[in-house]
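Saturday, quiet lab. Running sequence design on the C-alpha cells for the scaffold JK sent over.
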C-alpha cells in the first residue's frame, strides 16, 4: 500500500463521505470499463453505467430506493476475468470493478476502509499503465513523481476538500460535476 498524506483522512470519513468519494473515483474511471466492453463487443457498460447512476440518485434524490443486493448481483455478473482476455484493457476495467465494489461496500457494510481501497486501486491502475508504457516495473519513489500520479493525488485532495462541507444533494452533485468536468480518466484517457 502506498503511504500517502491523504490515507488517514480517507479512513476518517463519515459513511456518506466514503460512498461519495468512491463514487467520484468510479465516475472518473468508468470509461475504462466502457472501452473494455466495446473492445469485446459487449453491452455490459450499460449495466455498469446504470448502477453508477443509481448510486448518485440514492444520495441526491429524496426517497430514492436502491436494492443493493440485486444491483450487486447484476454487477458481479459483468466483472471480467483477466485470464479470459489477452489485452491490457481488461486490467483497468477490473480496477474499475474493484472501485465499484468499494461503493457497494460503503453502503452495505459501512467499512471505514472503502475510500482508502478505492484510492489505492486508482493509483495501482496508474502504476500498471506506466509499467505498460515503459516496459519496466515502477517502484513507489518513481511513481510519486509521475505526472499522472501527481494529477490524481490533486483530484483526490480536491474531492476530500469538497467533502469537508455539510452534506447536501447540491454538494454531492457538485462533486459529480467536478469529476465529469475533468474530461479524462486517471490514466489520461479523454472521456468527452
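Result came back. Writing it out in full:
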Amino acid at each position: 500500500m502506498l503511504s500517502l498524506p491523504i490515507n488517514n483522512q480517507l479512513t476518517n470519513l463519515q459513511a456518506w463521505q466514503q460512498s461519495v468519494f468512491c463514487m467520484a473515483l468510479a465516475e472518473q474511471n468508468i470509461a475504462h470499463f466502457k472501452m473494455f466492453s466495446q473492445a469485446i463487443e459487449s453491452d455490459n457498460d450499460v449495466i455498469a453505467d446504470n448502477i453508477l447512476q443509481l448510486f448518485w440518485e440514492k444520495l441526491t434524490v429524496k426517497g430514492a430506493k436502491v436494492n443493493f443486493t440485486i444491483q450487486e448481483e447484476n454487477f458481479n455478473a459483468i466483472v471480467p476475468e483477466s485470464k479470459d482476455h489477452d489485452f491490457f484493457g481488461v486490467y483497468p476495467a477490473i480496477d474499475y470493478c474493484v472501485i465499484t465494489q468499494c461503493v457497494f461496500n460503503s453502503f452495505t457494510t459501512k467499512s471505514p476502509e472503502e475510500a482508502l481501497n478505492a484510492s489505492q486501486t486508482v493509483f495501482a491502475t496508474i502504476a500498471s499503465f506506466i509499467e505498460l508504457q515503459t516496459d519496466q516495473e515502477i517502484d513507489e519513489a518513481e511513481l510519486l513523481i509521475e505526472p499522472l500520479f501527481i494529477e490524481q493525488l490533486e483530484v483526490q485532495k480536491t474531492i476530500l476538500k469538497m467533502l469537508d462541507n455539510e452534506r447536501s444533494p447540491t454538494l454531492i452533485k457538485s462533486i459529480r460535476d467536478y469529476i465529469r468536468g475533468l474530461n479524462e480518466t486517471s490514466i489520461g484517457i479523454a472521456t468527452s
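Notes for JK: The first helix runs from residue 7 to 11. The mean pLDDT is 96. Ask whether to fix the surface positions before the next round.
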